[in-house]
Amino acid sequence: MKRVVVLGSTGSIGTQTLDVISQLPNELTVVGLAANSNANLLTEQAAKFNVQHIALHQEAPGRGIPHGMDAIVRLATLPEADIVVISVAGVIGLLPTIAAIEAGKNVALASKEVLVAAGELVMPLVKQYGVALTPIDSEHSALFQCMQGYRSDQVENLIITASGGPFRGRKLADLQNVTVEQALNHPTWRMGGKITIDSATLMNKGLEAIEAKWLFDVDVDQVQVVVHPQSVIHSMVKFKDGSVLGQLGWPNMRLPIAYALLYPDRKPNTLLPWNPIDTPNLTFEPVDEETFPCLNLAKESARIGGTMPCAMNAANEVAANAFLKGELAFLQIAEVIKRSIREHQVQVPTLKNVLVADAQARAFARKLIDLS
Predict the structure, then answer these.
(1) 3-state DSSP helix/strand/coil % of the chain, to nearest 5
(2) Distance of CA 362 to the CA centre of its chain
(3) Is 156 helix (H, G, I), strand (E, B) or coil?
(4) How far apart are the C-alpha atoms of 185 and 321, rounded to whole Å?
(5) Quick one: which of 152, 151, 125, 123 has its CA closest to 135?
(6) Secondary element (H or E) of residue 235
(7) What angle do CA 89, 190, 7 make, to 5 degrees?
(8) Is beta strand 2-7 parallel, antiparallel or unpaired with respect to 28-35?
(9) Which residues pair with 228 in a beta bridge?
């Protein structure tokens, strides 16, 4: 029986994680839950799973629920916990991730921003404390599964697939006046708002390339992104002998969630299994880098290194959320990121420097948006 803490339990990944746990009562149990601000759903979840330890990132006046980053970190280090699911949105997952690792907890990571902003800090800690860090993102779960038994020096390329998002096939001129509703209309996945916007700009693939760099100890330029509209092949590994391994399945986050929680075991589930006869035509396309520049902006930040990926990620979070609120045009997201990268003064990525870089980049991006 693995005892699980879920940080971000009321979000898309968090609710699906609890669904997976509910279907595996002999394997998994919940001992802690945390959310950003949804006190009502959090307390419902706690009652359903009989959880005593809960926390909110933002205070819910009059509810008596512990709140703030210190409360989240306490949950991440619960003595009775075996594994901590990090499914909070954005870089706020960094501190509880580090705290969980230093407390000897295994981590199931859905918040790609943690490694984007601070992979150079987090991955050495994983090794130092001898814990497991299993990825929940479908693409990284696929890579993780394909890499079992292999070393990074045997890898030629990691191939991450992209659905292409809601604007696949469009050109820049077609995207001048896209609406929030159009950008949220993802053809394959149902996700939270910010990550769906990242999918529309293809920034999600840039973030995934950086995360893959740290998870699998490769250069960011070894990570290739290809558009695969059917979303059946979740990622592939091309080895130096020319062999390519891929992981296939219907697009459903419950499978990578279960694998991350149960690793190295696999258990039967109720998910519909993929059958090759059902999708006889699997297709691939190159990324249109002119129309979707965010992928290269992310890779550029990784090549520069230091605190630059953190600044890039912070600017993207601010810009994507501003678009969701109607404060910024869709095509201005990339421009805010580009100008923020040019402004940032790179520092060595200590925890303090990462947090400072994050705050400074957010402030600069916000200023750009307010002036637009």
Answers:
(1) 50, 15, 35
(2) 19
(3) strand
(4) 16
(5) 123
(6) strand 233-239
(7) 30
(8) parallel
(9) none
With 0-12 / 13-18 / 19 or more C-beta atoms within 10 angstroms meaning exposed / middle / buried, residue 178 is middle
User: pLDDT tens digits, residue range 220-249?
Assistant: 999 999 999 999 999 999 999 999 999 999
pTM, two decimals, is 0.95
* Placement of tokens 């948006």 in the chain: 369
With CA atoms as reference, report the closest residue to 146 among 228, 266, 248.
Answer: 248
Answer whether 143's CB lies under 8 Å from 235's CB: yes
Q: What pLDDT digit, counting tens, does each position of 46-101 carry? A: 999 999 999 999 999 999 999 999 999 999 999 999 999 999 987 889 999 999 99
Q: Which letter, b or e, does each residue of 243-282 get, where b requires 16 or more Cβ atoms within 10 Å of its Cβ?
A: eebbbebbbebebbbbbbbbbeeeeeeeeeeeeeeeeeee
Tokens of 163: 């659905």
Q: E strands within 57-154?
A: 83-86, 106-109, 133-135
